[in-house]
YdbS-like PH domain-containing protein
Amino acid sequence: MMTKRRLHPIAMVTGVGRELKHVLLPLLVVVIAGSRGDFSWRDLVMPLLVLAYTIVAGVLSWVRFKYGWDGQTLEVEEGLFVRKKRTIPFERIQGISTTEGIWQRLAGVVKVHIETAGGGLGEAEVALAAVSREEVHRLQREIERAKEQAGGRPPCEHGNRPLSLPLFTLSIKEVWLAAVTSGGAFGVVAAVWTFLSQLGDLIPYEALFRNVQTTWNGHGRWYIGVIGLVALLAAYGVAIGQNMIRFASFAVRRQEDTIVITRGWLERQTVSVPIGRVQGVMIHESWLRRLFGYATVSLIHAGGALDGGPPGDVVLCPLVKKERVSSIIHACLPEYDLGVAFRPLPKRAQIRYMLRPLYWLAAPLALAAYIERPWGAGLLFALPLALWIGSRRYQAAGWALSSRQLTLRSGWFRRTTTYMLKHRLQAVEVAATWWQQRKRLATISAAVMPLGTRARVVDVDEEDAASIYRWLQGKGRNQA
């Protein structure tokens, strides 16, 4: 017999608060723009009706949302005007992650994201906004028991399973260093710009633009540059604070066949990644982190955006010493071999890497140097720098092949190394332009996951690219 439950009342509060946050700014703009300087209480009638409807709809949505489970399925009923009922077999549930915002922590509950095999990338199949930790643990035990029975294994007791020791944690110093080197300032600027763009009726942007143009023509460009630099530094400071809150209390554990990642300060998040759904391993090394011997490790995951990042990408180690990466991966995913020897690109590909940045950089720099002459001529010194960067990208690129794993590496500012097992690969593509054909070169790209997460290396020797293609078909010889 399935007993239906309602979410904790804090779900109603957070849901109404989220909807009010979305409507308050547009309503404020409507009130100010509609009054036209002659304010009347009648201007508040429509906004108050919208606010009342938002609150009532939020309360009724909470009342009509019910969930429950038996030994085999999870059922969810929801809908304000149209009633919708979903039944999800436990066998289809691939992962459960939890988050704890400020309100959830005050109420002693968590938000549960349930991902299924048929769910689309980017969002969970079911989200329970406020559930007690005890109920989450009971649901997890029921799901594990159902999967064991479906797999022909006798069910075991999971209630007293001890919490394993963390395989990886971040110290306070490493949290700060991860936040400082993560960037994100341009994301903050974009968010502020999006907010200001909604106030077009209140802020005279055309007049401001004319004033800025007059100041620029009046040789006040240095003042504008200083203001822009201060704004960028302020955005960078905000990004550092956001990343420190995000990476606080970061820990990675392995519980049997699941990788459990916990993180967060204001909003605590627990992500459970089934090892069977890991499609590959990616190591990112920005030039700044590489300078201090650090890297970022993420997992290519056949599922949604479990940790708030892009769909299919789960951060395993936000910041880790490079010499520790191999041991952490071996403890979590012993099938992967990170000690491979990379094959460099052929020498004839170096000139192509050096000239490639000039294709899109030479014309804009020449035009800027002409407009801002004579001092603008200093911009032309960026051309040799571009050649040097292209040479570094050539030296960083490479590939490695073994009997069961393909590894591709590319980039220099942000060098990315992707490790993919043969049985996880969806496709390997070999392509060559007319210019590449003349140099006997090709571009090799490999994709994992049904929707395709790709890694590629440009200007590989065409014979090497053909051997990789044959390897995927099972015709090539094993290579180390």
